[in-house]
Specification:
This protein is α/β, with parallel strands linked by helices and 211 residues long. Helix content is 50%, strand content 14%.
Length: 211
């Protein structure tokens, strides 16, 4: 429980959940739900509204309904995935839609939730997705390219330090490459571990390598 409380209070405050549903009451209810969990929220009732919002701020999580009138939810999902930011997308369905759900999962949806929404379940799966904040690509030139989800969570310097740690460099080696002291590297690494919920360096590597 303490880990859950720490996770909500410390990490969610910089994360934006964007809800896209043609039903305004659903948007408002989910917005309240996620704000109570410490998230920032925005909502749209159609795809054009959602797309326009991307110019203002990219979301860290998207919750979108399949039923968006003439603009299908799968189109929204594909648009988000094409941004290549690792943003988790959770699809809502008013009634069970097996074929659409299967296609959504193939297109990269994190999960599909049927209404009426079990809010505790929705919050839990969103949290679980955000804990997996690291995606490691194939090894290239001896190093693993690391993509961090939720860019508001880690600073640019913290992402650089994480990249170097993931590639196996020591504090001294990372400090030499970045032009800062090994002690400063250690401070940045401690902050990265705190934000990603890693108990120690081995746990941090486990999170990275299993995501």
């Amino acid at each position: 429980m303490p880990d859950e409380i720490f996770y909500r209070s410390y990490l969610n405050r910089d994360r934006l959940v964007h809800i896209c549903d043609p039903d305004l009451s659903t948007c408002e209810q989910l917005s309240v739900l996620f704000r109570l969990e410490g998230f920032q929220t925005m909502f749209s009732i159609n795809l054009p509204g959602f797309v326009a919002s991307l110019d203002r701020r990219r979301p860290d999580v998207v919750v979108a309904n399949f039923d968006l009138g003439s603009d299908p939810g799968l189109d929204l999902l594909r648009r988000v995935k094409n941004l290549r930011m690792g943003t988790p997308v959770f699809m809502l369905e008013n009634v069970p839609m097996v074929e659409a759900a299967v296609q959504a999962m193939k297109d990269g949806a994190s999960d599909v939730v049927t209404k009426p929404i079990d809010t505790e379940h929705l919050v839990r799966i969103v949290r679980d997705a955000l804990r997996q904040d690291i995606h490691v690509g194939a090894v290239q030139s001896g190093g693993r390219p690391v993509e961090v989800r939720g860019f508001a969570q880690l600073t640019p310097r913290e992402r650089e330090v994480l990249q170097l740690i993931t590639n196996g460099q020591s504090n001294k080696e990372a400090g030499r490459e970045l032009g800062i002291s090994p002690r400063t590297i250690e401070v940045h690494r401690a902050r990265v571990m705190e934000k990603l919920g890693a108990r120690n360096t081995a746990d941090l590597m486990r999170i990275v390598l299993t995501s």
